[in-house]
């Protein structure tokens, strides 16, 4: 039996030495150490040995088992290390190769202009307020001195959802909501940026969806001169300290008196050119003193409170600031156009 054990050990160790993968090692383990393995079969015959031989053979059998087990483990670790090295070599990354350039995006030009305008007015004490884009007829029209069947409603072709619901045609409803929220006895100083919608034919200067920023200041003793000072500051900060403004009489149902604001042409500085169509001035926004009816409907006493409002289109502001001649370029997502203004 000793010879059998020694033969098993020698044979097993030779096979382990010649094994080239872990599967072969597992097969060897089963062949020699498994329940039906060679070593187990030999040990089952120990009952036939004398009492004196059993301890000696048993010790030898344990030594053979331990030797085979240890050798299997060592060879298994070696094969795993070799496999790992091959995998690392196969998956190696050459860090000296030049990397692929990563294109970094940036804010949309229109977003940048809106944020610039917001920062400017926040610096003058205005707060930014937002409201729903699906609006009621009351807040979009009636609360702004545009009762049903008012002819001025035709100035704003509207997307109606129902008789009382519509896509807002302006951000002025946010002003009406804010005044009513303040209860008619608290000053209001706010701007309301956001998307608006009108049934219009898209062309170089018109879009069915565009953005607006409207401003409102209501308090005691607010005057037209305050409005002019705010708008003059806005024009100089946005377009340069050399820009001049002028206010022309106009009409809006929610302001009285109403004005259009022009800025001096940056190309000809007021002398007249093709850009300003020879006038020396370019129209930029509408404004005026808040109509007493609007104040009353919001709960403010027009005998005590007064205010001014203004409205501008960020698209137009951007077009004049950067010399863009087609409003559709803001919405077509042409990367060639947009990338020009990453550092604007």
UniProtKB/TrEMBL annotation:
Cofactor binding remark: Binds 2 magnesium ions per tetramer.
SUPFAM superfamilies listed in its UniProt record: Class II aaRS and biotin synthetases, tRNA-binding arm
GO cellular component terms, semicolon-separated: cytoplasm
Record field: catalytic activity: tRNA(Phe) + L-phenylalanine + ATP = L-phenylalanyl-tRNA(Phe) + AMP + diphosphate + H(+)
E.C. number: 6.1.1.20
Positions that bind Mg(2+): 256
Alphabetical UniProt keywords: Aminoacyl-tRNA synthetase, ATP-binding, Cytoplasm, Ligase, Magnesium, Metal-binding, Nucleotide-binding, Protein biosynthesis
Biological process annotations from GO: phenylalanyl-tRNA aminoacylation
Class of the enzyme per the UniProt entry, highest EC level: ligase
Principal location class: cytoplasm
Gene Ontology molecular function: ATP binding; catalytic activity, acting on a protein; magnesium ion binding; phenylalanine-tRNA ligase activity; transferase activity; tRNA binding
Cofactors named for this entry: Mg(2+)
Span of the signal peptide: none
Protein's cellular compartments: Cytoplasm
Domain of life: Bacteria
Record text on subunit structure and interactions: Tetramer of two alpha and two beta subunits.
Family statement drawn from the similarity comment of this UniProt entry: Belongs to the class-II aminoacyl-tRNA synthetase family. Phe-tRNA synthetase alpha subunit type 1 subfamily.
Entry protein name: Phenylalanine--tRNA ligase alpha subunit
Organism: Virgibacillus massiliensis
Lineage: Bacteria, Bacillati, Bacillota, Bacilli, Bacillales
